[in-house]
Structure formats: C-alpha cells, structure tokens
Amino acid sequence: MFRFALAPALFAAAQMLMPGVAHATAGMGCEALDGSGAGVEMNLPRSPGTPPNWVRVFSATRKFSSLSMDEDAIPISTRQAFDGGDTFNIDLTDEDYAEAVIKIRLLRAEEGDEPPVYIGYLHVVGEGIYPISCIEDE
C-alpha cells in the first residue's frame, strides 16, 4: 500500500524537473565577421543570470570546449556569465579556474516575436580578438 501512495508523489516531482512545451534551453551559434573561421557554439538555459550549459570556442588556431566528449579540444569552464538584458558577457577559464582565457562580449537586439540578434567580440587572451555575430536556434 505504501508504494502506491509514494508513486504519485514521485511522478509529480519528476514532472517538475522535466521541461514542458516551452523550450528550457536555446542553442546559440556565433560566426566571426572577419573571415578567420573563429566562432562560438553554446547551449543557454532560459533562466536569467544562469551560465551556459556548455560552450565550444573555435579561434583561428585552436579549439576549446567545456564538453568532455570533445577530446581534441582544450578544456575550459565557465567562470562567470552576466546577462544584463541588452548585453551578455561570458568569461571562460582554463580547467583549473586559474585565469580567464576567453572573454565573450555581446550586444543584444530584439524586435517583436523575432529571435534576438547578437553582435560583439570573442577575445582569446594572448591570441586575438574576433568580431562575431550570433543567432539563437531553438
């Protein structure tokens, strides 16, 4: 009898953790505007102030990733992310959180029901600064 009383409570708790029809995350892709091949891919939660779930960065010469499955990439972690409405800033660190190795700074524009548009720069510290534009894909 006890297990039947527990089942509805577990089901209700599981439903709260599962995303509904609304998208809980959004993908974002950024491309360099200077022809360098640099870019950013990331998955963003739909909660303001929450850092990206994962990030991949491609500079002109190297590949970085917060995903362990990207074995050929230099490991990075999110140090901080700040969403100020019109601005979006992300600092990525080396694996030990010792120093920021990548800085992403974006300006955001939105109009009506259209997806937001972002423009800014990708700064790979010690290598270069790349102008980028980004779009969200759901």
Helix content: 10-25%
Low-confidence stretches: 1-21
Residue-averaged pLDDT, rounded?
Answer: 82
> Would you tell me which CATH topology applies?
Lipocalin
Which CATH class?
A: Mainly Beta
> Do you know the CATH architecture?
Beta Barrel
Q: Helical segment tally?
A: 1
Helix/strand order:
HEEEEEEEEE
Shape: globular
Structural class: mainly beta
- Number of domain modules: 1
| Radius of gyration, whole Å | 18 Å
Major sheet summary line:
9 strands, mixed, barrel
Strand content: over 45%
**Biggest sheet strand line-up:** 1-2-3-4-5-6-7-8-9
Structural features, described:
This protein has 138 residues and is mostly beta strands. The chain has one domain: Lipocalin (Beta Barrel), CATH 2.40.128. It has one helix and nine strands. It has one helix at residues 2-17; strands spanning 25-32, 39-45, 54-58, 63-65, 74-83, 87-94, 100-109, 117-124, 128-137. The protein has a nine-stranded mixed beta barrel with strand order 1-2-3-4-5-6-7-8-9. Strand 8 and strand 9 (128-137) form a beta hairpin. The longest helix has 16 residues, at 2-17. The termini are far apart. The model is unreliable at 1-21 (pLDDT under 50).
Write the layout of secondary structure elements.
Blueprint: H1 2-17, E1 25-32, E2 39-45, E3 54-58, E4 63-65, E5 74-83, E6 87-94, E7 100-109, E8 117-124, E9 128-137
Parallel strand pairs: 4-5
Antiparallel strand pairs: 1-2, 1-9, 2-3, 3-4, 5-6, 6-7, 7-8, 8-9
